[in-house]
Q: What sequence folds into this?
């Protein structure tokens, strides 16, 4: 039971193994009831009995419940200390990668907009400078011709 996490709810000091935390986190992310064998396959657990053992621990703590069809569903959403892939906004768990995607996408888009605005301004400045230089040259030529 290396690297255990602690349940962060009032009055509970229960410690969970890393596998139990991983199963609970998966169930939160999965969002649908899941059977023992399906859970065992998805998380590459060594046997269905190992999955059942950890599900019983979570069921005993009333974090999940067993449905009449034999599948298990999340009953209560809490944050366990060992969770790495979920970010909680209020009591709603959100996969961390979605937040990272949104953040990097918005940063990339804003960088693209800044680059685009910079290019447009550069083009305007070059165009304006070229026009200004042409006008100065024309004025100089006209001055030279009228001074004779």
A:
């Amino acid at each position: 039971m290396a690297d255990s996490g602690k349940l962060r709810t009032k009055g509970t000091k229960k410690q969970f193994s890393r596998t139990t935390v991983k199963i609970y986190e998966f169930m939160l992310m999965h969002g649908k009831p899941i059977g023992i064998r399906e859970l065992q396959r998805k998380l590459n657990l060594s046997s269905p009995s190992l999955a059942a053992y950890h599900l019983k621990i979570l069921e005993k703590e009333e974090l999940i419940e067993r449905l009449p069809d034999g599948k298990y569903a999340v009953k209560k959403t809490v944050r366990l200390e060992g969770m790495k892939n979920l970010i909680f906004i209020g009591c709603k768990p959100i996969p961390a990668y979605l937040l990272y995607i949104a953040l990097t996408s918005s940063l990339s888009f804003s960088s693209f907009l800044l680059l685009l605005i910079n290019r447009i301004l550069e083009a305007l400045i070059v165009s304006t400078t070229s026009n200004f230089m042409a006008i100065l040259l024309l004025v100089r030529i006209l001055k030279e011709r009228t001074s004779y």
